[in-house]
Amino acid sequence: MHNDWLGYLYAATVTAGGIMGYAKAGSIPSLSAGLAFGALLGYGAYLNSQDPPRPLLQLGTSLFLAGMMGARWNRSGKLIPAGMVCVISVAAVVRNLITYNRYLPLPSK
Fold first, then answer.
1. Structure pTM?
2. In a designed cystine with 83, which of 34, 49, 68, 73 is the match (CB 3.0 to 4.6 A)?
């Protein structure tokens, strides 16, 4: 069994971003979203650490974060934090698609 250290690091980064948003601007929505998405990503990393890996939760959460933060990055034009989370989320989507392709069979007819 291997540990999904990159997945845990991604979850910690999203959680820390929510905490920093609260500490810097007093944003309750940022704190709650950071904690919620961080928890989902952490559990997804746990599922990815199983044998065989189960990347679907982390894949879906990363895809949602990439879209949401990508739209926010497009509106604001600011790389930090929206652009950074978008880029990291896209990398996580690619990584989880590779894991899905390697370990899980495609649905048959």
1. 0.89
2. 73
